[in-house]
Amino acid sequence: MPKSWGYAQRHHEGERGGTFLVGYAGRLFKIDADYQVAEPVDGFGACGCGEQIALGALFASSDAPARERLEIALNAAERFSAGVRGPFHFETLASPE
How far apart are CA 35 and CA 14, in angstroms? Predict the structure, then answer.
């Protein structure tokens, strides 16, 4: 999957992918550049240049609804990280039955 989406890169015969988050069946996983898979113990995560800012916003907004927490985290990262910019798009996929 990462190769077809443009994440994988080859350098000196080695391959590395990008870091990204995957939600599946109510769980969140972080895929690191070396394809290591981690599941955050707090139930939320972030990645990229605004990661620390977004994590702080997610932690501080734990009582808000999920969609609102995402908006707060992205807006905070956009405000305080030069590498994060909107527009942000949200997509919800139907769960398989």
Answer: 13
